[in-house]
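Kindly inspect this one:
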Amino acid sequence: MSTRQRPPRARRERDGSRPPTAAEARAAVEAERAANRERRAQQMRERFGDEVPGRAIIVASWVATALFGVVSVPAVIDPERFVALFFGVSVVLFFAGCAVFVLDLVLAAARSRDDAMGIGGLFFLAGSAPRQVQVHLLGSLAAQVAISVVAAALHPFTPLAFGTLVPTLALSLSGLWAVRHGWFEPATVE
């Protein structure tokens, strides 16, 4: 039995302070989420319309993913023969990702004076990009992660494990898209 005393039922009903039931509270939260989603979708439609900016960034992400996939297949089948090619491509893609990350951070620092930017919106496009852009850039990231993990798992403790660093490129390209084209709320000054 609980030691906390609850007000008598009759008194709660008389003064109208009946707390909502769990179902009512959940329905209210879900209704608020749906309204926020629709508001955000409307803002995205107003901001971007039918034309999606930054197509070159999206294409670059998929080209890098395809290149990584193409060199991964022979490296997994015959690591002795193709490991050098795999390693070389992985190094180039990783360092390209590092360079784009630096660019992302510099551009984000400049833009954050005017816009409220968070990590989720910047690198994972949460609320800052239309759904179509999220699907492409995060899909490319997921594909790079899957390719790298499978290659490393099939030949552990080999240079194929270095491929797990390649997804930095897809993640940094998502950040580049967000910092160049993403929509963020205006920063509030307190």
